[in-house]
Amino acid sequence: MEQIIATVRGFDGALVVLPEPGGDLPELVWGDAFFYYAPDGQMPRTTQPYGTIVTKNYPDDATSDLDPAGRWRVNIHVDRATFRELTEEEPRSLTRPRDHSAVDVVLPHPVYGALGWISVVNPGERTGDLLAQLLRGAHDAARGRLARRHEPGR
Question: Which has the least CB within 10 A, 18, 24, 35, 92?
Answer without folding.
Answer: 24
